[in-house]
Design a protein that fits this description.
- The complex is a heterotrimer of chains A (255), B (254) and C (280).
- Helices cover 83% and strands 0% of the residues of chain A.
- By secondary structure, chain A is mainly α.
- The model of chain A has no long low-confidence stretch (mean pLDDT 85).
- In chain A, helix 8 packs parallel to helix 9, helix 8 packs antiparallel against helix 10 and helix 9 packs antiparallel against helix 10.
- Chain B has 254 residues and is α/β, with parallel strands linked by helices.
- Chain B is built from 8 helices and 10 strands.
- In chain B, the strands form 2 sheets. In chain B, strands 6-7-8-3-9-10 form a 6-stranded mixed β-sheet, sandwiched between helices. Chain B has a 4-stranded antiparallel β-sheet with strand order 2-1-4-5.
- In chain B, a hairpin with a 4-residue loop joins strand 9 and strand 10.
- In chain B, helix 3 packs parallel to helix 5 and helix 4 crosses helix 5.
- Chain B is globular.
- In chain C, helix 3 crosses helix 11 and helix 10 runs antiparallel to helix 11.
- The chains are: A mainly alpha (255), B alpha/beta (254), C mainly alpha (280).
C-alpha cells in the first residue's frame, strides 16, 4: 500500500499543482476567451456529459476498429519480414516514406474511398497510423533473439515452429506491447483527426471542431478532455493486459 | 563404442579464416576431456561441430557411432554455454522442463524429473523462481540441470563457469565432478583455465591457434574421486605446469 | 560499390513491383466493378503516371506547373518545420534536464508528458494560434505560430529519449566525476549530455518528419495558403475533378519528410563520427 502511495504521490501532486497554476495564473492571464479555467471546463463537461460521452464512445469504436485492423496487419507484416530478411531491407525505405506522409494528407483520400459519413473511413485512417509502430516494434522483437537461445533449441533438435512458439514469440512480446501502447494513442488521434475532415455529428472530432468555430471554448476543452481521457484509458487497458501476460518480465517487478 | 570420433575435422569460415585444421580426436565413454587453448584456437567451434551446431568444411564427426546430425536429432547430448541462456518468461522449473517438453514427456514425469534435477544441483525449492532472481552461479546450475534433465550420455560444455567468480567456480567444479560420477556420463569441456582443466579432467587436450590444431594430449593421472584437497597436491602442480608448458610450446605467450 | 549498386537495383525493383500492384489492382477493380473494400475508378485510384504527369502541368489555367507550386510550398513548410524542430528539440531537452535532476519530478511529470500526446494537435491548433496572435500579435508571424505547434509534436520523442540518455551515463563515470568534486552542472555538461547523444539522434530521426507533419497539420488553422498544408486543403476541394493533384501533393509531402529524416542521418554521421545503427 505504501509503495503504491509512493508511486502515485508525485503524479497527484503535480496534477494538483498544475490545476492550481492553470486556474489562478494561466487562465486569468490569457483571458477566458482564450483559455477557460478548469472550473469552467468542469462545468461544461457536467452540462454536456450525455452528448460528449456518446460522441466519445462513437469515436472510440472507430479507434478500436482501426486499432484491431492496423495492429493485426502490422503483426502479420512483422512476421513475414522477420522471416524473409532480404525483403525487409528492400522495403524499409518505403515504410519510412509511408510513415512520413502526414495524416492530413491521406485523410481526405480515405474519406473519398469509404464515404465521408461512414465510420470505416476513420477506421482506415486509424489503422494506417497503428500499422507502423506495431510492425517496427514487433519486428525488432522478433529479430532480437540472442543466437545462443536459438542454438540451445537446435541442440534439442526443435523444429522451426517450436522455436518460434517457445523462443521468438515470447522474446517479441515486450516489444509488441510497446508498439500496441503507442498504437492506442495514435488510433484515437487518427479517428478524431479523420472526423475533422467531415463526419457524423455524433463524432467527437466534429464536436470539437464545431465548438471551436462557435467559440464555445469550455465545451471544446471538455470534449478534448473526454478524447484525451479515452486515449489514456485505452493505453492503460493495454498496460493491464501487458502486466497480465508478461508478469514474468523484470520490468514488472521494478528491476 | 567410442562416444566421439573426430577424423580430419577442419573448419574454414567465409572470408578465409581457418578455425580448425585436421583435428583427430577420440573420446571414450565416461571420460572427462577438456579442450584448452588460447583465444581463437577454435575450441568452441570444435565443440559446436561435435554438437552439429556448425558443419565442418572437411573431415567427419561421429557421435555414438552416428553422424553428428543424427546424434543431434536423437538428442544424444546436452549442452551448456557460457551464458546460462535461461528463458526469462519461464520459471526455473519450467526452464529445466523445456527439453522434456520437446521430447513429449507427460506432465507427471516431467515434474518428477525436475525435482530430481534440482536436488542434484542443490537448488531444491527454487522451482517457482524466475531466472533474474538468481545469482550467476545459481543460473549456471539451472543450466546444468536442464542439460542433464533428459540424461544424455554425452555432455558438451563451453566455458560454463567462465563468467563466475573464483570461489563459486571451484565449488561448481566439485559439484560437476560428483554429478559426472553419479550420472556416469561422458563430458567434453572447453575452458580457459589451466587449473580447472587439470582438476576436472581425465585427459587435457591442448590446442594451438591460427589455425586450430591439437598440440598435445596430456593424461591426468590424479586419483578419483577428486576433492578440493587435490588442488594442493604436488602432482596437481606438476600437471598444471605440464599443461602450461604444452601451451607455450604450442605458441601461446604466457 | 557493388553493394550500393545492388541496393539501388532492389530499390527500383521494389518500386516497380509496387507500381505494378497499384495498376494491377486498379485494372481488376475497374474490370470487375469491385466495391469492396472501396469502389475503384479514376477518382479513387488514378493512374500513377497521371500523377507524375500532373506535376509538370499547370495547376491553374496559365499558371506555373504543379511541381513549381509544390516546391515553393515545400520550402515554406520546411521553414516552419525547421524552426518547430529546433524549438521542440531545445524545449524537449530542457524538460529532460529538469526531470533528470529529481526522481520526484520525473515520476510526477512524465505521465503528463505522455498524456499531452493524446490531445490531437488539430484540436488545439486554432486555440493556440488565436492565443499567440492576441498576446504576441505584433511580433509573431503566422508561420512562426505554426512552428510552435509543430514543436508540440517534436518535443515528445526528444524529451523521452533525452531523459533516458541523460540517465544512461555509467554510474561509475558519475562517481568518478564526483570524486573530482565536480558540481551538478559540470557533470551534466561534461558527462551526461554527451552520453545522451545517441539517444538524442534516435529521437531526432522520429522528430524530424514529425515536425513536417505538425507544420502541415497546423497551417490551415493559421490560415496559411503558401505551404503544403494549404495545398492539401486546396486540392482536397477539387479531389473529385482532379484527384491526381492531391496525390501528387502527398508524394511531395512524403519526400519532404524523407529529406528531413536523411538530413538527421547525415548530421549524425558527421557529428558523432561513427555509423548509426539501423540506417534504412
Amino acid at each position: 500500500m505504501k509503495r503504491a502511495g509512493r508511486e502515485w504521490a508525485p503524479v497527484v501532486l503535480v496534477f494538483a499543482a498544475g490545476m492550481l497554476l492553470w486556474q489562478f495564473v494561466l487562465a486569468p492571464w490569457l483571458g477566458r476567451f482564450l483559455l477557460p479555467t478548469p472550473v469552467q471546463i468542469g462545468k461544461s463537461l457536467h452540462e454536456h456529459w450525455s452528448v460528449l460521452w456518446h460522441a466519445g464512445w462513437f469515436t472510440l469504436q472507430e479507434a478500436l476498429g482501426g486499432f484491431a485492423i492496423g495492429c493485426g496487419l502490422g503483426i502479420v507484416a512483422a512476421l513475414a519480414l522477420a522471416r524473409y530478411r532480404r525483403l525487409s531491407g528492400a522495403l524499409m525505405p518505403y515504410f519510412i516514406a509511408a510513415n512520413a506522409v502526414p495524416i492530413i494528407a491521406f485523410a481526405p483520400i480515405m474519406n473519398d474511398w469509404f464515404g465521408l459519413l461512414n465510420p470505416h473511413s476513420k477506421m482506415a485512417i486509424a489503422a494506417v497510423l497503428c500499422f507502423f509502430p506495431v510492425m517496427i516494434n514487433t519486428m525488432r522483437g522478433l529479430t532480437s533473439v540472442p543466437p545462443a537461445a536459438i542454438e540451445l533449441m537446435r541442440s534439442y533438435a526443435a523444429s522451426e515452429l517450436e522455436i518460434f512458439r517457445r523462443v521468438r514469440f515470447p522474446t517479441a512480446l515486450p516489444f509488441l506491447f510497446t508498439g500496441l501502447k503507442v498504437a492506442t494513442v495514435l488510433s484515437m488521434i487518427g479517428a478524431i483527426v479523420g472526423e475533422y475532415f467531415g463526419g457524423s455529428i455524433q463524432a467527437l472530432g466534429v464536436q470539437i471542431e464545431n465548438s471551436v468555430t462557435l467559440f464555445d471554448l469550455p465545451l471544446a476543452w471538455a470534449a478534448i478532455v473526454v478524447a484525451s481521457s479515452m486515449g489514456i484509458a485505452f493505453y492503460a487497458l493495454i498496460g493491464v493486459a501487458e502486466r497480465f501476460t508478461m508478469g514474468w518480465h523484470p520490468s514488472a517487478h521494478g528491476e | 563404442m567410442t562416444v566421439v570420433e573426430l577424423k580430419g575435422v577442419s573448419k574454414e569460415f567465409h572470408g578465409g579464416t581457418v578455425a580448425l585444421q585436421g583435428i583427430d580426436l577420440d573420446v571414450e565413454p565416461r571420460e572427462f576431456v577438456s579442450l584448452i587453448g588460447p583465444s581463437g584456437c577454435g575450441k568452441s567451434t570444435l565443440l559446436r561441430i561435435i554438437g552439429d551446431l556448425i558443419a565442418p568444411t572437411a573431415g567427419t564427426a561421429t557421435v555414438n557411432g552416428k553422424s553428428a546430425e543424427s546424434a543431434r536429432r536423437d538428442r544424444d547430448y546436452g549442452i551448456v554455454f557460457q551464458q546460462a541462456v535461461l528463458y526469462d518468461w519461464r520459471t526455473v522449473g519450467k526452464n529445466i522442463e523445456l527439453p522434456l517438453e520437446l521430447l513429449g514427456w507427460d506432465r507427471k514425469r516431467r515434474k518428477a524429473r525436475v525435482a530430481e534435477m534440482l536436488e542434484l544441483v542443490e537448488l531444491g525449492g527454487f522451482e517457482g523462481h524466475h531466472p533474474w532472481q538468481l545469482s550467476g552461479g545459481m543460473q549456471q546450475r539451472v543450466a546444468i540441470a536442464r542439460a542433464l534433465s533428459f540424461q544424455p550420455a554425452l555432455l558438451l560444455m563451453d566455458e560454463p563457469f567462465g563468467a563466475l567468480d573464483e570461489m563459486t567456480r571451484e565449488r561448481l567444479n566439485s559439484e560437476l565432478l560428483s554429478i559426472w560420477a553419479e550420472t556416469e556420463s561422458t563430458v567434453v569441456f572447453v575452458t580457459h583455465s589451466i587449473p580447472e582443466a587439470v582438476f576436472l579432467s581425465t585427459r587435457v587436450v591442448v590446442m594451438s591457434a591460427r589455425p586450430g590444431r591439437i598440440a598435445e594430449v596430456i593424461d591426468i593421472d590424479l586419483p578419483q574421486p577428486r576433492t578440493g584437497a587435490v588442488r594442493e597436491d604436488a602432482r596437481f602442480f606438476e600437471l598444471v605446469t605440464s599443461v602450461r608448458e604444452a601451451l607455450i610450446r604450442g605458441g601461446v605467450e604466457i | 560499390m557493388r553493394a550500393r549498386a545492388e541496393r539501388g537495383a532492389t530499390f527500383l525493383a521494389v518500386l516497380g513491383v509496387l507500381w505494378g500492384a497499384w495498376e494491377g489492382w486498379r485494372w481488376i477493380g475497374t474490370h470487375f466493378h469491385l466495391t469492396w473494400p472501396f469502389t475503384v475508378n479514376d477518382t479513387t485510384m488514378p493512374h500513377l503516371h497521371r500523377i507524375v504527369q500532373a506535376l509538370f502541368q499547370p495547376a491553374q489555367v496559365n499558371g506555373p506547373s504543379l511541381l513549381h507550386i509544390l516546391l515553393n510550398a515545400s520550402a515554406f513548410t520546411a521553414k516552419e518545420a525547421v524552426l518547430g524542430f529546433v524549438l521542440g528539440a531545445v524545449g524537449g531537452f530542457a524538460i529532460a534536464v529538469v526531470l533528470s535532476q529529481s526522481r520526484f519530478l520525473e515520476r510526477g511529470v512524465i505521465p503528463y508528458v505522455v498524456a499531452s500526446q493524446t490531445i490531437p494537435l488539430l484540436a488545439i491548433a486554432p486555440m493556440v494560434i488565436v492565443g499567440l496572435e492576441s498576446k504576441f500579435g505584433g511580433t509573431l508571424a503566422a508561420w512562426e505560430c505554426v512552428s510552435v505547434l509543430a514543436a508540440y509534436l517534436t518535443f515528445f520523442p526528444v524529451t523521452i529519449n533525452a531523459l533516458r540518455g541523460l540517465q544512461s551515463a555509467d554510474p561509475q563515470a558519475v562517481e568518478l566525476m564526483r570524486s573530482y568534486a565536480a558540481g551538478r552542472w559540470r557533470i551534466l555538461w561534461k558527462l551526461q549530455a554527451p552520453a545522451s547523444l545517441p539517444y538524442l539522434f534516435s529521437a531526432f530521426r522520429i522528430a524530424a518528419p514529425l515536425a513536417i507533419v505538425g507544420a502541415i497539420i497546423s497551417e490551415p488553422s493559421a490560415s496559411i495558403q503558401g505551404g503544403l498544408g494549404g495545398a492539401i486543403v486546396n486540392f482536397n476541394q477539387y479531389y473529385s475533378i482532379e484527384p491526381q493533384e492531391l496525390w501528387a501533393t502527398n508524394v511531395i509531402s512524403a519526400l519532404l519528410g524523407i529529406v528531413f529524416f536523411l538530413v538527421v542521418v547525415v548530421a549524425e554521421r558527421t557529428i558523432v563520427r561513427r555509423a548509426p545503427e539501423n540506417v534504412a
